[in-house]
Amino acid sequence: MIVVSVDERDFHTGFIGQHFRSLQSGEASAYDNNLFLVHHPIVARCRDREGTQEWIGGLYERVFDGSLKLAPIPNTPYNIPNMQLRIATINLMAPAGLFLPWGDRANGLARALAGHQPDLIGTQEDTPESLEDLSRGLPGYGVLGRGRWADGGGIQCAVLYRQDRLKLGKSGHFWMSETPDTPGSKLTGMGSARVATWGVFHYEGRTLTLLNVHFSHLSRREQARILLRRLSKLPRPWLVTGDFNSTPWPIWSAHRVLSTHLTDLAADAGSTWNGGLNLPLARLDWILGSREIRGSGSQVLRQGKSDHWPVLVDVNIA
């Protein structure tokens, strides 16, 4: 085991409480022997890449998963400009009887998104009905998705993409389980299966991967590790959209696991979950990117009549 001391300048590369608790609880047995233990001063103040201040109290330690092999950052020819794209994520909220019925929400969500013309939209809790209605209000978008059950039925995590700007290449799905390529599979103790959708998109001679998820509120840290392992097999740069059923805090949240390799591109956008009450309650919906992606502005659209609000971020991809 290698022990490394880090200062404030290094601290933004990841957050250091999550995996130490996994080690204490015995979960670290799933890792290989290539573990790194990092110490940080008792009190630290830092800024991440987007300038977000965080106050950390106590002595934290972090263990990295040495088995995770990340794809290298691609070398971009100097004569190819940065990609500039607008990304969105929205939980459509599956119909729930009299509580915010879909028919009352379809037009509002479509108008909210159409006014900003995102290039890529990650959606969660989709049904065939909601996707059909949303597509009607967003002409020109392709749809990529499938249901979470083994037979392809059930709610989806579909990706919508502007066909006039992006060309879809390879795509696929996986499940949050110990056998992620088995349709309908799930982690032990998880209430229902959770499917993730990914697509490789081509834009003006460049390539990027978008992965869209909806985490269960159970086993969120393990779902984050499954996500990172799958990302490591896909072409960079990476974008991740989703409803993570978790806030960035506390220190043992799934956000801390994902932040070891991804940057929160909408960290300053504000609360995204309103509980159907139109009140800013929590930030559960995130847009994350690999290190070569920079956010140039983000916002939460406080409209659309769902229990979540749409999140938008403009990105520059080197």
Task: Provide the fold topology.
Blueprint: E1 2-5, H1 8-11, H2 18-25, E2 36-39, E3 43-47, E4 53-57, E5 61-63, E6 83-91, H3 106-114, E7 120-124, H4 128-137, E8 141-144, E9 159-162, E10 167-175, E11 195-203, E12 206-214, H5 220-231, E13 238-243, H6 254-258, E14 263-264, E15 285-289, E16 293-300, E17 311-317
Parallel strand pairs: 1-2, 6-7, 12-13
Antiparallel strand pairs: 2-5, 3-4, 6-17, 7-9, 8-9, 10-11, 11-12, 13-15, 14-15, 16-17
Walkthrough of the structure:
There is one protein chain. With 318 residues, this protein is α+β, with helices and mostly antiparallel strands. It folds into two domains: 2-63, no CATH class; 83-317, Deoxyribonuclease I, Chain A. The protein contains six helices and 17 strands. A six-stranded mixed sheet has the order 8-9-7-6-17-16, with no helix packed on it. Strands 10-11-12-13-15-14 form a six-stranded mixed sheet, with no helix packed on it. Strands 1-2-5 form a three-stranded mixed sheet. Helix 3 packs across helix 4 (128-137).
The largest pleated sheet is described as:
6 strands, mixed
User: Could you estimate the helical fraction of the residues in percent?
Assistant: 10-25%
What is the approximate shape? globular
The amount of beta strand, in percent, is: 25-35%
Tally of individual domains: 2
Instruction: Give the N-to-C terminal Cα separation.
Output: 35 Å
At CATH's second level, what is the architecture of the largest domain?
A: 4-Layer Sandwich
Number of helices: 6
CATH topology of the largest domain: Deoxyribonuclease I, Chain A
